[in-house]
Amino acid sequence: MYMDINDIIKPENLVYTKPRLMNDNPMHYCPGCSHGVVHKLIAEVIDEMGIEEETIGIAPVGCAVFAYNYIDIDWIEAAHGRAPAIATAVKRLNPKKMVFTYQGDGDLAAIGTAETIHACNRGENIVIIFINNGIYGMTGGQMAPTTLEGMKTSTCPYGRNVALNGYPLRIAELVERVDGTCYVTRQSVHTPASIRKAKKAIRHAFENAMAGKGTSMIEIVSTCNSGWKMTPVKANQWMEENMFAKYPMGDLKNV
Amino acid sequence: MKEEIKLMKGNEAIAHAAIRYGADGYFGYPITPQSEVMETLMEEKPWETTGMVVLQAESEVAAINMVYGGASCGKAVMTSSSSPGVSLKQEGISYLAGAELPCLIVNVMRGGPGLGTIQPSQADYFQATKGGGHGDYHLITLAPASVQEMVDFVALGFDLAFKYRNPAIILADGIIGQMMEKVVLPPFRKRRTEEEIRAQNPWAALGKPKDRKRNVITSLELDPAIMEQNNIRFQATYKRISENEIRYEEINCENADYLIVAFGSMARICQKTIELAAEEGIKVGVLRPITLWPFPSEAIARQTSHVKGILSAELNAGQMVEDVRLAVNGKVRVEHFGRLGGIVPTPDEVLAALKEKLM
Lengths: 255, 359
Prior knowledge:
The complex is a heterodimer.
Chain A: H1 5-8, H2 35-49, E1 55-59, E2 74-77, H3 83-93, E3 98-104, H4 105-111, H5 113-121, E4 127-132, E5 135-136, E6 142-143, H6 162-165, H7 171-176, E7 181-188, H8 192-211, E8 215-221, H9 225-228, H10 232-246, E9 250-254
Parallel strand pairs in A: 1-2, 1-3, 3-4, 4-8, 7-8
Antiparallel strand pairs in A: 5-6, 7-9
Helix pairs in contact in A: 2-8, 3-5, 4-5
Chain B: E1 4-9, H1 10-21, E2 25-28, H2 36-44, E3 53-56, H3 60-72, E4 77-81, H4 83-88, H5 90-98, E5 104-109, H6 125-129, E6 140-142, H7 147-164, E7 168-173, H8 174-178, E8 180-185, H9 194-200, E9 216-217, H10 224-244, E10 248-251, E11 258-261, H11 264-279, E12 284-289, E13 291-293, H12 297-303, E14 309-314, H13 320-328, E15 333-338, H14 347-358
Helix pairs in contact in B: 1-2, 1-7, 3-5, 11-14, 12-13
């Protein structure tokens, strides 16, 4: 039997669709980058919870600075590292809103460490989405606080040397110890199974914030295949073999 | 509650004025000589009455970014600090200006540079009036000379900030912050509801309803052609502010032979200098800029028709004097007198300087 393409493109045959809250702006992220997947999950969770009119996102400085171009909600673009301070005020002044930050490792774990720790310690009813790819992507691949020992970047071209650069900083373990956090988890988005788990974690965190339970942090260990100078497939393998050893997957705290 | 007359410190006056204005939030970090602002707010507990949020931040940097967050939602939010703390806030202030956000900043100046001293100073004039952080921008800069003006300029600062979508700063000093005077406190105003903010400030990021595009508060624009247009828009705003919002006070200027230009506490001291000079038969007037930016250049230039010389008296090494000279453009002699590092001069010291430098 001959089938025309129009016989296939029918609502009953639909197996996947772009989330309603993702708009049509072409993404600036590199092919293979984890950001696009995480954006999609956030857009789906906001849509499924029916809170798009009440949600305010705080974008970082770093590759995700343009997050506000892709998810169709109100956004505030923060100065480098300051997103948790901004989110604090937005939530305190608008207690019924859903407020989340979206930050990379340089933004959150280097220049914004103080704002991160103190927002968590105050138990602000916000969600912090933390993309940890061990490198500064936007500025061209410099060393991050989370860069692994021995890992090469443009500012540690011979590999991270702990005598010179200190140790990779495990922020999730740090904020897990802080009394204001209610949920700290480490996830990834490199397989269909991990994507499903990460989405559940994001949903749980958003529900915590709306229920006023305290601060939730979701660290998403991610690839930066451009910065790592690998193919996307190789980057995923390298992440599993190296990043997961230092940054193990799973919940650190779920109160 | 109605208008009330009270005796209080300048710093306390700021706090009471903010609550009565209907401010939505205050975010600060302790630093001498202005810690009474947050202490008063915490004691007053406005979150139980007006609903105002008061939060002690982990740093000046966090505090100004909390202001950025609140301002992004169209809320009337403020911070206060003193010189070293205001230096820390400069990054956030530049972002506020770049994102065209209204807010109120209070600097109760102390002597610097560095950790400096906790005694009064006016050495942050350049920082407040010329930008302070990176980029081409200006803050609406109000210089109170009394505790009453600490009260009045909270409302004025917020109103101007919202009118022009630009940060405003009250540039006070340790004397104005710490001294006690009688003040008339205005009646309480209600805080705006979210619906009122959405109607009056449609740019505010309060959550996107279905019938409008998303609001994005940002100072970022990578296309230089658009970024230039943004800057041209900022400059047009500064021009409108300069055309409409210059404020100053003239004291005995009409028949003066010599003019003192002074702001804040220094202007108070110089009012006594007028009397001391008169006793010696010297006719001295004081022109007190109330807005330091925009600067009352034309008002000062007009004085050159009859004065023989101008003294810019400041608690610094000579900052406002540059603007006075630009205003006068060489028509009469302009000299500077200042004490530094937290020393406050007496009125006769100012008179002696005037005689020595101009007569």
